[in-house]
Specification:
With 435 residues, the protein is mainly α. It has 26 helices and no strands.
């Protein structure tokens, strides 16, 4: 049988993959028939892959095309756990897409329910992340371990559910006695990740289930993000404001660092005096934390070499520890000044830290310094615009982005930011909500 022009060699792979993704079984069979010019049809299909290296079987599973998955297994004779180039099974693709029907079909035909990807993500993790309690129950009913984890970074299903703010799946996992304090290899717990995400309902669930409210100092993370309701929740559950975080900071010190006096006054009566703060009062703590002595004490254990401090600052930023990153960028700026230099990138990076912490005034100050040091650097203008947007100075923000575009007209990020600033300015002039 000769190949039809419609299914030419140039198009057949794309047609097959598209049909698999759309779930068009009739078209899929038609393409397979067109390919079937003798034996080895399965091998031909295995050779058709998308840019990610995924076969049509995986594409069908990822899109929840159960009928096509059935065709692969029952008519083409593919193994139900047919592995992609990345070592992932169709079941895992279906789980990542949240396709319960496809998952049930594959499992009923022998798919391994605990097969993972290279990061340790399993179908149970995917169901937990996706907020599908029925799927979680189904997988647990098959004997999948509730605390399954193949990788120290991924963590348990409860951990990822807390990280993504999914109370419905967390409830099921906790009912099946998931380890409420189960930490990843880098020490984060479900409670810490719930607080990091600002998920109050998830935080309450974990506390009710017996989570250790002092492990990894979730109170410090709540203070860093100024989550008043979560701070109160943790304190009511017994969180100790005298417990320092891994960087040696007390919660009251962190309250000063985020410039939130309300949090400081909430914590002060519950915190025991420390000898290094000679004036144990709200004002005394503020003066101490803002002193050079405090900053030197924090960084002294991390070295005073400029390159080392810059690496530490970047590491903390990548972990979203913006308070720590801000402190180390400040130290780097001080060391840079001692060398008689003026690195605009350090001010730009500290501006970004301040922006992430919600401090628009300081973010703008640092951006202006970066611009002064490198007046032809587009990023300095972008930082200026971002800070002005935070301060709701939309007209000035628009101008800053426009100045940046004059230096780098093809900067897509700058173009998008400029359009947003103009749109916010228009809405502001019309009295519309700019949220």
């Amino acid at each position: 049988m000769a190949s039809s022009p419609f299914f030419s060699d140039k198009n057949k792979a794309k047609k097959l993959l598209d049909a698999a993704g759309s779930g068009n079984l009739r078209l899929f069979k038609e393409i397979v028939k067109d390919l079937n010019e003798g034996n080895g049809i399965a091998d031909k299909i295995k050779g058709f892959k998308d840019k990610k290296g995924d076969n049509a079987f995986h594409v069908a599973a990822a899109h929840g095309s159960t009928a096509i998955c059935q065709y692969f297994v029952e008519e083409l004779g593919f193994p139900v756990d047919f592995y992609s180039d990345k070592g992932e099974t169709p079941l895992l693709y279906a789980a990542m897409g949240g396709h319960g029907g496809t998952m049930r079909y594959l499992i009923s035909h022998g798919a391994n329910p605990i097969a993972s990807d290279k990061t340790g993500l399993t179908p149970l993790h995917c169901a937990a992340i996706d907020g599908q309690p029925d799927l979680v129950k189904f997988l647990l009913s098959l004997g999948v371990p509730v605390d399954i984890s193949f990788n120290y970074v991924t963590g348990t299903p409860l951990y990822v559910a807390a990280k993504h703010g999914q109370p419905s799946t967390m409830e099921v996992l906790l009912e099946h006695h998931a380890d409420v304090n189960g930490a990843t290899g880098i020490g984060f717990t479900p409670l810490f990740m719930s607080v990091l995400g600002g998920y109050l309902e998830c935080t309450k669930l974990l506390i009710k289930a017996g989570a250790d409210v002092n492990l990894k100092c979730p109170l410090g993370m709540a203070i860093q993000n100024e989550l008043i309701d979560i701070i109160k929740c943790l304190l009511e559950a017994g969180a100790d404001p005298n417990v320092r975080n891994e960087y040696g900071w007390l919660p009251v010190e962190m309250a000063v660092m985020v410039k939130n006096r309300d949090i400081l006054e909430m914590l002060f009566p519950l915190t025991s005096p420390v000898p290094e703060v000679q004036d144990w009062s709200v004002q005394g703590i503020c003066q101490y934390v803002n002193s050079n002595a405090f900053q030197e004490k924090i960084v002294e254990n991390f070295g005073k070499d400029l390159a080392e401090v810059k690496v530490k600052a970047a590491d903390f930023f990548n972990k979203k520890e913006y308070l720590a990153a801000n402190l180390f960028y400040t130290k780097a700026i001080e060391l840079d000044k001692m060398n008689g230099s003026g690195d605009a990138a350090l001010f730009s990076n500290r501006s970004l830290c301040c922006h992430r912490m919600g401090d628009g005034d300081q973010a703008l100050k640092d951006a202006l310094v970066a611009r002064r040091l490198r007046p032809e650097w587009p990023k300095a203008f972008y930082r200026m615009g971002a800070a002005l947007m935070l301060l709701e100075e939309y007209g000035q923000a628009s101008q800053a982005f426009m100045d940046g575009l004059r230096l780098d007209p093809t900067n897509i990020e700058m173009q998008k930011a400029h359009r947003e600033a103009v749109d916010c300015l228009r809405k502001s002039d019309l009295g519309e909500d700019t949220e």
